[in-house]
Amino acid sequence: MPTPRRQVLKSLAATLLAPAFARAQAPAAPVKLAMVESLSGPFANTGEAVYRNLLWAVERVNQRGGIKLPGGARPLALERYDSKGQPEEALAALRSAIDDGAQVVLQGNSSAVAAVLVDAVAKQNERDPRRGVLYLNYSAVDPVLTNERCSFWHFRFDAHADMRMAALVQVLRDDQSVRSCYLIGQDYSFGQAVLREARRQLGVQRPDVQIVGDELHPLGRVKDFLPYAAKIKASGASAVITGNWGNDLTLLVKAAREVGYDGKFYTFYGNALGAPAALGEAGVGRVIAVADWLPNLPTARSEAFYQSFRQRFPRPQDDYVHMRMQLMIEALAQSIEKAGSTAIVPVARALEQAQVTLAGQAGTMRAADHQFQQALVVGQMDRVGAPGVRFDVEGSGYGFRVVRVIAPQNAELPTTCRMVRPT
């Protein structure tokens, strides 16, 4: 029988060991990711579509055991913050995310929002490095974000506007049916950059093409695009070039159909979020879109990737999958593991060197400006079942046949970035 002294010692040991045992049994603290996006207002559908992509990517990492770190594996946790598509709201969302312990901010739908986040993240990391964050951008494609306004804390995983335009014009250059173009875009930094680069590239690649319209409209505030569509038709333009996205694109192409415009649309985002359904038969053979990946890319691994997304999100209206968002989360997971830490400077340095592959698609982060380098594809809208169109978009009956693949080395453009790195 134990003596009273031994009983006291055993009780004391149990008391001292209990917290350590509880910590060992407790779930590992997650690495918090904060998605800052429009979840209300005119572009809410774009935010929800992005969330599905990011959620799927995070689930894939967690299903294989999470992030492997020296102290044990840690899961990723994705949290949502509504920016309402406004820079001021995005800043408030960023502050909330940091207060909630987020270590990585994810945003992309709006270059205007991206610009304020780049500055705000840099100031946060300088002012309070213990609560520093990295900013991963999957869609904000104003070229200045990885040129004049590049930041060590910002990484872009989409091709910027000039890269996308170069890919589109490669196809337009060979399309001799296009004799005149109408340029239309959203009136903010990204839309202005698209139109500026369209003018420049047409001057170089197709100087014979006449620009018969050049117009900017308010972002997210136009409810009736019929007056714009009427001007496009009246101009006699054989093609429209636009970087419009979300409802601004869907309403534009719907109005064009209603006025009977029969020219082509060269778009950045005409392959999703209601645009194909809005055009219907009027878009067959006439809508061209550039992307980092398309579901009808003719490879077995690409098809399996797309099919697995459709199994996860079976509703036709949820059909909006982007390879770049998957590669982005894979690159982040890889970089945290390589750094052996969630500290933002080691992770950023590892992310600068990231090389990632998924479902046969590959990409590399360029350290000079933090612009991801990957292949681009250009597709043309057609009926599902037509040659090269096995999968449609959002249950519309229309999909995109791949007509051009641009290798990463051919999609790459020089940068003017002068990166300032922490010492």
From TrEMBL:
It comes from the Bacteria. InterPro entries: BCAA_transport, Leu-bd, Peripla_BP_I, TAT_signal. Residues 30-382 form the Leucine-binding protein domain. Coiled coil: none annotated. SUPFAM superfamilies: Periplasmic binding protein-like I (SSF53822). Keywords: Signal. The keyword Signal applies. Residues 1-28 form the signal peptide. Belongs to the leucine-binding protein family. This is ABC transporter substrate-binding protein. It comes from Ramlibacter pinisoli.
